[in-house]
Amino acid sequence: MRVVVLGGGVVGVTTAYQLQKDGHEVVVVERQPQVASETSWGNAGMVAPGHSFVWSSPKAPMILLKSLFQKDQALRFKLSADPRLYTWSWKFLMECTAEKAKRNTLLKHRLAAYSQSVLQQVVADEDIRYDRNTRGILYLHRSQEALDRGIAQMRLLESDGQEIRILDRAGVVALDPSLGAAADKIAGAIYCPTDETGDSALFTRGLAAKVAERGGELRTGTTIRSIRTDGDAIAGVETDKGEVRGDAYVLALGCHSAEAGRRIGIDLPIYPIKGYSLTIPVGNHPRPPTVASVDEHNLVAITSFGDRLRVTATAEFAGYDLRHKPSDFAFMKGVTQDLYPDGADYDRAEMWAGLRPMTPTNLPFFGRQRYGNLYLNTGHGHIGWTMSHGSARITADLIAGRIPAIPMDGLLAA
Ligand SMILES: Cc1cc2nc3c(=O)[nH]c(=O)nc-3n(C[C@H](O)[C@H](O)[C@H](O)COP(=O)(O)OP(=O)(O)OC[C@H]3O[C@@H](n4cnc5c(N)ncnc54)[C@H](O)[C@@H]3O)c2cc1C
């Protein structure tokens, strides 16, 4: 078949790769001059099944409410005139019971762990340089009480096969001596040795080059204006450079899938949740992190990509507004500098903001809705780089009429 993939982020490109592997002709339509230029560009790079906890948890309603009145650094919920914010928030709140949070977290963990295994296969098959680091991720806690709570919570993922190790302060510093200067600020960590990191933009661009070498079409710099339907099928995609047609289509437009879906009668509750990141050259600094970490108290993620650090933070409801200013980054920079004082050339940090395509369940949409030849692979939220590889394989399997390698109950709309 000729399959048209709408969107050239990590989700679209991994999907094109898996489809091509199955023998299909693939076309990727992407508005930016290069693939992985939007959300898939500046993320923290964590391939982290150990980070599968959903945001729609029993604690979330109070956190959202408080953020209306307090200037919180991690979460910024703002009222707006956008009615979709309220319909989405209502659906999100409906997922916040303990039972649903547990169910959604386990589904997400299933997908994330499977996805990591697919990534490992791709890495074995293809030579792609993306500053991969397989030394695990440290989930740092600043007090013993917080560490104990974190351990109790992590048992859920452990029950689903996640390997965890509990480290005290000395154990953390032994694993990553670059945290030595901040040892007195850390009580300990939950260490997930099988989690890994890597630059998702480098990976996506490397993979896209492989797809192109094998005859796949990358139509970058091409904006999709509308999707043309004919009864219960998609007939073509209208772009600023003419129509693109295929036998099947995959919707992988990240945050923009909601609008594209709406225009053809598919309701996809995907809302943009803005995050910020810094990319900081290590320069001559001798102590960059050697193991990625998440400061669970401040909700700041820190990853080392070879000669750069990537630091991310913040969940902000700001619609599709990608603007940012230096003060948005001051807190996360301060936290990083505090943990790794000699880790990077902090004065040369590059600022970026991106939009997480969040769904109320925190799970992506798969499969078909309404149209026989349109497949969804979208809404990957805060760990879309982690879940993309498995999601791509699942989508290719569904298109081939094969049963995916993991049970799809709960992941596929009935
Ligand atoms: C601050 C931050 C930190 C994160 N950290 C992590 C992490 O550590 N680990 C992890 O797993 N995930 C992380 N994520 C999440 C991850 O980055 C996303 O889930 C993932 O990148 C989503 O990929 P995507 O392909 O769905 O979306 P995108 O990368 O946004 O791709 C969608 C593509 O569609 C294109 N497009 C949109 N409209 C049109 C149109 N009309 N015509 C043509 N093309 C169009 C866009 O240009 C874009 O390239 C983070 C996200 C943020 C914001």
From TrEMBL:
List the keywords (alphabetical): Oxidoreductase
GO terms for biological process, alphabetical: D-alanine catabolic process
Query: What InterPro entries does the record tag this protein with?
Result: FAD-dep_OxRdtase, FAD/NAD-bd_sf
- Tell me what this protein is called: D-amino acid dehydrogenase
Q: Which GO terms describe its cellular component?
A: cytoplasm; plasma membrane
Similarity section: Belongs to the DadA oxidoreductase family.
Q: Which Gene3D superfamilies match?
A: D-Amino Acid Oxidase, subunit A, domain 2 (3.30.9.10), FAD/NAD(P)-binding domain (3.50.50.60)
Q: What is the lineage of its organism?
A: Bacteria, Pseudomonadati, Pseudomonadota, Alphaproteobacteria, Hyphomicrobiales
